[in-house]
Amino acid sequence: MTKFLCTAKVVGQYMLNATTKQIDLIVPEIARTAVPGQFVNVQVSRHTAPLLRRPLGVAAVNREDGTISLMYRILGEATRILADACSGDTLSVVGPLGHGFDLTAKKPLLIGGGLGLAPLYYLAAALAKQKPAVLMGGRIADDLFWQDIYQDYCPEQYLTTDDGSLGTQGTVMALLPELLTKGYDCAYVCGPVPMMKAVAAACAAAKVPCQVSLERYMACGLGACLSCSCGGVGKRLKVCTDGPVFWAQEVAEW
Amino acid sequence: MTKFLCTAKVVGQYMLNATTKQIDLIVPEIARTAVPGQFVNVQVSRHTAPLLRRPLGVAAVNREDGTISLMYRILGEATRILADACSGDTLSVVGPLGHGFDLTAKKPLLIGGGLGLAPLYYLAAALAKQKPAVLMGGRIADDLFWQDIYQDYCPEQYLTTDDGSLGTQGTVMALLPELLTKGYDCAYVCGPVPMMKAVAAACAAAKVPCQVSLERYMACGLGACLSCSCGGVGKRLKVCTDGPVFWAQEVAEW
Amino acid sequence: MVKARSTHRLAVNLAGLKLKTPVTTASGTFGFGLEFTDFLDLHKLGAVTVKGTTLLPRAGNKGQRAVETPSGMLNCVGLENPGVEYFLQETLPKLAKYKVPVIVNIAGASPEEYGELAGKLDVPGVAAVEINISCPNVKEGGIAFGTNPRAAAAVVRQVKDHTSKVVITKLSPNVTSITELALAVEAAGTDVISLINTLIGMKIDIEHQRPLLGNITGGLSGPAVRPVAVRMCYEVAQQVKVPLIGMGGIMNAADALEFFLAGANAVAVGTGNFVDPTLAVSICDGILEYMDRHKVQQVQDLVGLALPGGKRR
Amino acid sequence: MVKARSTHRLAVNLAGLKLKTPVTTASGTFGFGLEFTDFLDLHKLGAVTVKGTTLLPRAGNKGQRAVETPSGMLNCVGLENPGVEYFLQETLPKLAKYKVPVIVNIAGASPEEYGELAGKLDVPGVAAVEINISCPNVKEGGIAFGTNPRAAAAVVRQVKDHTSKVVITKLSPNVTSITELALAVEAAGTDVISLINTLIGMKIDIEHQRPLLGNITGGLSGPAVRPVAVRMCYEVAQQVKVPLIGMGGIMNAADALEFFLAGANAVAVGTGNFVDPTLAVSICDGILEYMDRHKVQQVQDLVGLALPGGKRR
Ligand SMILES: Cc1cc2nc3c(=O)[nH]c(=O)nc-3n(C[C@H](O)[C@H](O)[C@H](O)COP(=O)(O)OP(=O)(O)OC[C@H]3O[C@@H](n4cnc5c(N)ncnc54)[C@H](O)[C@@H]3O)c2cc1C
Ligand SMILES: Cc1cc2nc3c(=O)[nH]c(=O)nc-3n(C[C@H](O)[C@H](O)[C@H](O)COP(=O)(O)OP(=O)(O)OC[C@H]3O[C@@H](n4cnc5c(N)ncnc54)[C@H](O)[C@@H]3O)c2cc1C
Ligand SMILES: Cc1cc2nc3c(=O)[nH]c(=O)nc-3n(C[C@H](O)[C@H](O)[C@H](O)COP(=O)(O)O)c2cc1C
Ligand SMILES: Cc1cc2nc3c(=O)[nH]c(=O)nc-3n(C[C@H](O)[C@H](O)[C@H](O)COP(=O)(O)O)c2cc1C
Ligand code: FES
Ligand code: FES
């Protein structure tokens, strides 16, 4: 799939919760072609610090308007600068990058933790007809602001929080084994590595096909630098170009 | 004089000509104490590039409002960032720095080239009662947008441009020898080094006391790093703390 | 016609290696070139310098392999690559279509291994080999050869003995005297010298209280190191006669021009490719604009103007 | 009471040199300390390390002496200073009022000159001398001693012979093996090692087509070099037993903590003073906050946690 280097125009920025924002960008080339699971590489500064682009998953696409939305946690230097971008500002964006999810599931179950729910949101939209269920895990209730956002595509929601302040107490693993008996034909997972590993193991045990979206430190996002390489079964995988979405059984080194 | 490290609030920014801007900052400690000829050291970025503060002369002060104005040419990385600052933004400013002009002249003549006219503008305000004359040199007419700005304090203006598009053709030296016969008792000079050297020589010949404001690359502005050191008569001078204003005869190495 | 003339003005001949433009890519930062075809025409590059290649496939280092640092980055990829046979069978034929000189960066664990690699790569489609004696991220070979003049010379001799191609030797900046190394590899017969590889650095993860990179240390690249790279280029240009390829932190034409003026005959874009994937081609526009402004006909006329005496020895 | 306790938690004893906080200033970046009294209380510093001092006054280098580079700066001040006699008569009495340990950075053209300087500075009010064998900006002495283990050791022995003060030796990063130098100066009797001085770099003024700095090359400092500095600290900490003072690009508490975890017992703030003149004191708040969060009582308990085995040898 063709990758573009584009000048994107910011058309909106919204707080999603205390530390998470959504930014909407006009970038027609990418809006036209990006599929769920792909990401873009955003340059936040024209100076040499911060230097590298930052990878962010495509969280929503509006093909008519030619816009894409990114949802991101304000963590460090780059995301803090991004959070200050105003409508009308321009950003250099490279994308769409990587391979997306296999979308052939008939009864999909999305499983997300933290900002893993950002790329899954675009997936939810793409699978809307199949009425995907979503299982969300957070540390505290405020992490699950995603509930409202997902409502349109996923009326069926299962929630867990570490502190029990919303939904079931525990991680997603508190609910997953039971959910896996309900006939879902594919699990789509994005979140912290321990979560993905545990989910993948449970899916394997329940013989439910499982796709995971990995995150690795990326310098180029283009398959050129090998920063993001990880061990696959029988071969090396580049998370940025061979992934970030893999079938769980392809991944040997999480 | 006490130096302050302050958080200054931007209250206005104006274009003066195509490449020059004025920025107004609320910074009461500095507004209260800065004298003409002093400068401030401005941090334009919270990131590591650009790294160092940038020295800018105090071009105007409003003690009641607690504001200072800086007038600067947009040249490189730092001044481009500064030019994007909006009202309400904050900047870290260190100042007031250096020593100012001797203000005892009865019949002062200000001589400025380029952005040298920025610090001289505050001097003009301070000497307003003495009705200072000003001699301004520029490459082209547009460089002398200062005419209007100086009007209130200096109705007596002499202009030169390299291309003759405004005032007398040539450098300030085209008019200076004659002016020096008119009884001015002190010349205050700020501009490019060749101009300052020539003016200082002419003043010496005409026995008119002459003060020059030097510019050197400065890393600290505090007398600590010796980046700005220059040869004085019989001793080394730190431009940032012993100057930037010197009597012309104190300077051995321009 | 204008195009043809511009290209001509940028042409450079590095000891027989003829490049249309004086800009190549730094090994390891441009993959095999094929990764960038959506962004630029490979044939508009002076040459493609590909990822460090070894006799056998290598998996590289475990753990986090890259991290940003102030105006730079550290990497400890550790020469992950599919091995020379794969390169020859799978990659080289694909690259051949693009009609761009291919420079193959090679690394081995002994002078003999370098020689063997050079021999295998002495095939049509390969324009030059670049000897990597400066990789800080592998245990055997790598930088060990790059810090010892005798060992470096031994590697160069082996490679020269096994190839008919132009031989480039890439120096490590992690030495007391870069000129000592440069003179040693020149005496051993290298046709061209490229510099610099990365500076050895590290970052500590203060929350986990341990080195952040999987390999503990990594190689520092990017604009942060440019002052060191330009200085080394300037020093080496005064001591050796062979052509130089300068690199280290080039992000735009102005940065590249520092290297030409410091004595480099060509430059390579590295970390800059990650920020602007079109850079290795687009940088030429800025170089031509500068040449026009300074009334310089050939880019080679810029080489060494900032050196004492105003030119390369 | 709280104040007293915090201070106590930050205390460090460097081979007999007792500091209230583990933060000093890097020589040449803090003048004689007196320049910063509007911004911070000198007595809240661990120590003030003053500008490099020589036997006779020095005028330093001509031309432009500093320039910013990506996340760093180059300087070629060239050890301008008023000489040791002036320092003893004029500066030291003024500093005495602030009740802060004073470390005097010294540079000479021969081991004997270093010894003579150390002798003259063996007076009340001086807490330690720091041997600068790593200044890249002077012709005689300076870095020449810093790149040769035997020469470095000779300087250290001379200084040790002429002073009763704690002797700190400051290493240059412009070497193939920093540990070789560290072991040499330790064997020669240095009490403490500080590192790093600046990396040699340069910038070309492309419009004028000549080196921008008056001295052609200069010393690179600031955040750009921090990865190299941390790596060298980490390497040296595994080889020597003497306490280390780490520096290079420290701009905040997190940066300083990298050095402690890499084995430094104390740190110095250099270029950071130019950006935030309160930094050398205010950084302690961030260090204490981190210690609280990680439930660490004494800052010395952090030293070397990122080293193999989790501690200094
Ligand atoms: C394929 C992919 C998709 C991602 N999608 C999203 C998303 O949709 N929403 C979201 O909030 N975050 C996402 N991330 C993570 C996001 O890239 C980081 O949070 C961001 O780069 C942090 O940058 P910073 O400068 O603000 O923080 P820093 O202080 O630089 O770093 C904070 C954390 O982010 C990681 N990080 C920094 N730079 C990179 C990089 N270049 N590549 C990978 N990780 C990096 C660091 O390792 C560190 O753990 C994604 C990462 C990848 C690899
Ligand atoms: C005491 C003093 C007062 C000054 N007052 C004014 C003023 O009132 N208005 C004005 O427009 N300019 C003034 N300058 C010059 C101003 O500091 C530079 O134009 C500015 O720093 C440019 O920064 P930059 O990043 O935009 O450009 P860069 O691309 O970094 O540099 C452009 C030019 O500015 C010089 N410069 C950059 N940084 C510094 C520094 N830290 N110290 C000294 N020179 C530097 C460079 O040498 C170069 O010649 C003054 C300089 C000094 C020393
Ligand atoms: C991710 C990465 C991988 C690299 N791999 C190699 C390599 O395989 N062989 C080599 O000689 N240099 C390698 N280098 C060094 C670069 O080729 C170049 O010398 C260095 O990065 C300095 O240039 P830059 O600052 O423009 O990146 C690598 C650099 C990076 C950043
Ligand atoms: C302007 C300047 C002057 C310096 N002068 C000296 C000196 O006289 N003696 C010395 O040992 N180091 C000198 N240094 C080096 C610093 O002490 C320090 O080792 C180096 O800058 C790295 O620290 P930093 O990155 O925090 O600045 C100087 C550094 C700068 C920037
Ligand atoms: S990020 Fe460069 S290869 Fe994946
Ligand atoms: S700028 Fe540092 S001493 Fe003047």
What report would you give on this structure?
The complex is a heterotetramer, with two copies of chain A (254 residues) and two copies of chain C (313 residues). Chain A has two domains: 94 residues, Translation factors (Elongation Factor Tu (Ef-tu), domain 3, Beta Barrel), CATH 2.40.30.10; 143 residues, Nucleotide-binding domain of ferredoxin-NADP reductase (FNR) module (Rossmann fold, 3-Layer(aba) Sandwich). Chain A contains six helices and 16 strands. Chain A has a seven-stranded antiparallel β-sheet. A seven-stranded mixed β-sheet of chain A has the order 11-10-9-8-12-13-16, with helices on both faces. In chain A, a hairpin with a 4-residue loop joins strand 5 and strand 6. The longest helix of chain A is centred in the last third of the chain and has 14 residues. Chain A is globular. Chain A starts with a strand and ends in a 7-residue tail after the last strand. The mean pLDDT of chain A is 96. Chain C has 313 residues and is α/β, with parallel strands linked by helices. Chain C is 32% helix and 20% strand. In chain C, the strands form four sheets. An eight-stranded parallel β-sheet of chain C has the order 3-16-15-10-9-8-7-4, with helices on one face. A four-stranded antiparallel β-sheet of chain C has the order 5-6-14-11, with no helix packed on it. In chain C, a hairpin with a 4-residue loop joins strand 12 and strand 13. The longest helix of chain C is centred in the C-terminal third of the chain and has 15 residues. The mean pLDDT of chain C is 95. The interface between B and D is medium-sized, with 30 and 35 residues. One flavin-adenine dinucleotide (FAD) binds next to strand 4, strand 6, helix 2 and helix 3 of chain A. The site of one flavin mononucleotide (FMN) has 26 residues of chain D, from strand 4 and strand 14.
